[in-house]
């Protein structure tokens, strides 16, 4: 599961980790929630990797109501090749969603405690995703995306039974390759090289998406 994440690395750090034109990065964000815009990398019609702002919560091109995106912030890697909502995007519209870390909540006697999970070296990473474009009549197109999840790694199992698919640049290029075979892509999602992670407890202020400051990723004493 991935229901909240952060992306705050400076431009030079992002380009070192993912050497493409990062376009115009937004201000640092520490509490990105569904329905908000996120930065994605995707292949254009010529196969070049470009950056784009995209709404989080996938709205399939055939949807009658864009509100469906509120329920489609995550997609299971095990079923995206077959599910009608995702299979066309899996074939043709794959993306990388940029992040520095994501949040997960652990059940405790005092209520759920939020944790921030990042790479052990604190470098930015990408979450594997899918995107789609929805158009109503002659209106402006809405581009949206979803985060792909897999069963949790041993490290993550204490926090949740699922987690986003995390990728570095090498894996990301394979994921975005237009000619990649479905079987190769599925193997990349389910059996890719794991990225070392770290996690620490953070303030419950992150529970409210209105809050968005660097204090949200600061460790708190349990």
Give the gist of this structure:
With 222 residues, the protein is an alpha+beta fold. Helix content is 14%, strand content 33%. It has one domain (5-217): hypothetical protein yedk fold.
Task: Write out key terms for the chains shown.
4 helices, 222 residues, five-stranded antiparallel beta sheet, alpha+beta, five-stranded mixed barrel, single chain, 13 strands
How does this structure look, described?
This protein has 222 residues and is an alpha+beta fold. Helix content is 14%, strand content 33%. The protein contains four helices and 13 strands. The chain has helices at residues 11-17, 87-92, 169-176, 182-191, and strands at residues 5-7, 29-32, 37-43, 49-56, 74-76, 94-99, 101-106, 113-119, 125-134, 142-151, 162-164, 166-167, 197-201. The strands form two sheets. Strands 2-1-7-8-13 form a five-stranded antiparallel β-sheet, with no helix packed on it. A five-stranded mixed barrel has the order 3-4-10-9-6. Strand 7 (101-106) and strand 8 form a beta hairpin. It is globular, with a radius of gyration of 17 Å. The model has no long low-confidence stretch (mean pLDDT 94).
Shape verdict: globular
Report the major sheet.
5 strands, antiparallel
Oligomer state of the chains in this structure? single chain
Distance from N terminus to C terminus (CA atoms, Å) equals 23 Å
What is the overall number of helices? 4
Helix content: 10-25%
**In which order are the strands of the major sheet placed?**
2-1-7-8-13
State the CATH class: Alpha Beta
């Amino acid at each position: 599961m991935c229901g909240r994440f952060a992306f705050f690395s400076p431009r030079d750090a992002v380009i070192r980790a993912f050497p493409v034109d990062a376009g115009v990065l937004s201000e640092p964000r520490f509490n990105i929630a569904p329905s908000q815009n996120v930065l994605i990398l995707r292949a254009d019609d010529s196969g070049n990797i470009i950056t784009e702002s995209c709404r989080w919560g996938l709205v399939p091109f055939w949807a009658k109501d864009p509100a469906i995106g509120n329920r489609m912030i995550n997609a299971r890697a095990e079923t995206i090749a077959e599910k009608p909502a995702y299979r066309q995007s899996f074939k043709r519209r794959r993306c990388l969603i940029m992040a520095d870390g994501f949040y997960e909540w652990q059940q405790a006697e005092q209520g759920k405690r939020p944790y921030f999970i990042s790479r052990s070296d604190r470098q930015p990473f990408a979450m594997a995703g899918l995107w789609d474009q929805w158009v109503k009549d002659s209106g402006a197109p809405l581009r949206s995306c979803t985060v792909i999840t897999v069963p949790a790694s041993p490290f993550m199992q204490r926090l949740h039974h699922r987690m986003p698919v995390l990728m570095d640049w090498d894996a990301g290029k394979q994921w975005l390759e237009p000619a990649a075979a479905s079987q190769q892509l599925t193997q990349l999602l389910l059996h890719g090289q794991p990225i070392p992670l770290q996690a620490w407890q953070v303030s419950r202020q992150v529970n409210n998406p209105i809050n968005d400051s660097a204090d949200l990723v600061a460790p708190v004493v349990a």
